[in-house]
Amino acid sequence: MSDYIRITTYLWERPQSEIDQILSFYDDHRDEGNRVRDAEELIKAGRTGGVYRVSNSADGKIGVACIFHHQNGAHEAGGTRIIRNGLGLQKVLHKCRLLHAFLLDTPEREYFTIIDDANPRSISGTEKCGFDAWSPDTGFRIVVGKKNAPEKLFFTFDLQSELKREVLARHAQDLLDLHNGTPILSKDGSKVLVVLDFPLFTNPSLLKTVERLALPEDNLDR
C-alpha cells in the first residue's frame, strides 16, 4: 500500500493532549470560511466518538471533521478542515458522520451543517451527499447560530425520512466499497486506498449493521 488515507476517531484516552493536537492543526491551517472551535466543543464531540482524524502515509495528519451536539438536541457536522484536495474527502467524511449520526446517535434530532456562501465546491459536495438547503418551511428549527450567522448557508439532512434512508443506504455501500479495498481515484489519476479505522468498520457487530443498511431491502429499525 504505497499511498493511503486513514480515517479514525480520537480515542480520548488523553483528552487534553488530543484537544491540543486538534487546536494546533486548526491554528496551522486557518480557513476564514470555518469558525474556530473551542476545547469544550471538542470534548463534547469526542466523548461520543464524533471527532474524526484524517491522515495519510506521506504527510501525516491532513484533516479533522466533527459531529457537535448542541443544547437544543441538534447535531452539527462541522469543524471540517482538509488540507489535501482532489480526493473528495469532504464527501467521504460527510458519509462517515451521517452513518454515525443515524446508527450511533439519536436520529430524530436535527442534523445540519453550515457552509460559507462563497464556497460553491463545498455546497456542491454537501448537496451530493443528500443535504437540502434550509428554509423556514423545512420543519427544521435550526436555532443554533442562524441568528448569529445570517451570511452563512445552512443545510439539513432529515434522518427520519424514508427517502433519505435510500441515500444512507448508498452512503453505506460507498463506504463498504472503500473498506473492502476499492480505491479513490484522485484528480491526477493516481489510486489511493482508504482505511476506515473507526468502530462502524472495526467492530464486527457494528459492521454488520452497516452491511444491513446498505441492502436495498433493508428494514433496519431504530
Q: How is this structure best described in words?
A:
A hairpin with a 3-residue loop joins strand 2 (51-56) and strand 3. The radius of gyration is 17 Å and the shape is globular. The protein has helices at 15-28, 39-47, 89-104, 120-128, 162-179, 199-202, 204-214, and strands at 4-9, 51-56, 60-69, 75-82, 111-116, 132-133, 152-156, 184-185, 191-197. It contains seven helices and nine strands. Helix 1 packs across helix 2 (39-47), helix 3 packs across helix 5 and helix 5 (162-179) packs across helix 7. It has a nine-stranded mixed beta sheet with strand order 6-7-5-4-3-2-1-9-8, with helices on both faces.
Summarize the structure.
The protein is α+β, with helices and mostly antiparallel strands and 222 residues long. The chain has seven helices and nine strands; from the N terminus they run E-H-H-E-E-E-H-E-H-E-E-H-E-E-H-H. A nine-stranded mixed sheet has the order 6-7-5-4-3-2-1-9-8, with helices on both faces.
User: Proportion of β residues?
Assistant: 15-25%
* Helix-strand string: EHHEEEHEHEEHEEHH
In the predicted model, the low-confidence regions spanning at least 5 consecutive residues are none
Question: Shape from CA axes?
Answer: globular
Number of continuous helical runs: 7
Q: Largest sheet, order of strands side by side? A: 6-7-5-4-3-2-1-9-8
Q: What do the pLDDT scores average to? A: 84
Biggest β-sheet description: 9 strands, mixed
Q: Over the alpha carbons, how many angstroms does the gyration radius reach?
A: 17 Å
* N-end to C-end Cα span: 37 Å
Based on secondary structure, the structural category is alpha+beta
How many E-type strands?
A: 9
Secondary structure: helix percent: 25-40%
